[in-house]
Amino acid sequence: MKQIVDINNWVRMATRRSGAQVQRAAEAPQGAEAVDVEAQQVSDEESEDSKSTRLTLMEEVLLLGIKDREGYTSFWNDCISSGLRGCMLVELGLRNRVELERLGMRRRGLLSRKVIIKSSTPTGDVLLDEALKHVKETEPPDSVQNWIELLSGETWNPLKLRYQLRNVRERIAKNLVEKGVLTTEKQNFLLFDMTTHPLVDSTAKQRLVRKVQDSLLSRWVNDTTRMEKRSLALIYLAHASDVLDNALTSLSDDDYELAMKRVRELLELDPDVESQKPGSNEVLWAAVAAFLK
Predict the structure, then answer these.
(1) How many other C-beta atoms are found inside a 10 Å radius of the C-beta of residue 92?
(2) pTM for this structure?
(3) Using one digit for the tens of pLDDT, what is the confidence trace for 191-244?
(4) Distance between CA 171 and CA 154 in Å, rounded?
(5) Strand 185-189 to 192-196 pairing
(6) Complete DSSP assignment for 61-102
């Protein structure tokens, strides 16, 4: 009799185990599907960056602007200085360090909303942390447009000159030297010597150029909410810094015209409208609004 009871207990336990296995097997596709959806949300650019040197927006824009052999940006480019400051603010926004103040009862435009601290945790990048410190310690807070001017030193108020970030291009270039993308040389220009940073890692530059080209051609989606945020930011900020064309000159005439047509479409968008769409980054669109003003 005892043996019969033991056998019955064993059968019930085996049935429960097999039932649990069936249930787990039934749930497995759902879990796998969730993983697949999450994996699809990770952009090709990010997965490619994870296998190589990850660059900040400032480094990407400067790398597009630097002449490969000469190692310096065009003397005629007077936009890249403010463009790099815009890159810093957008980078801080993408890293969830700063955000725009909340909308009140009265709806205000992006250019009038102030930048506030979301997290004061250091980023590990000296320039970004310096800009973050300025934003954190400033009362009352200021707008993205004003911060771009303050960090560039473009102010008539002598009391606010302390916010200017100095030697930005040189400091960003040194970051690229440390990452093995550029090197450092001295060149003589008749009356003076100048430190230059020629390109040594052509693969990194080609990868960056291809990233811009693919975003406007093979991976183009006519919807900013579906575009990878860093790629979208890079297109806008490279244009604001007058270096976007450097990434498109290697295209065929037809592809170049198509890419520029899509750039114009992006420039014609209303930043205030785009910033209200789900998943958008308001700091990015505030910087876009400041440069399009």
Answers:
(1) 26
(2) 0.82
(3) 778 899 999 999 999 999 999 999 999 999 999 999 999 999 999 999 999 999
(4) 19
(5) antiparallel
(6) HHHHHS-TTT-S--TT--SHHHHHHHHHHHHHHHTTSEEEPP
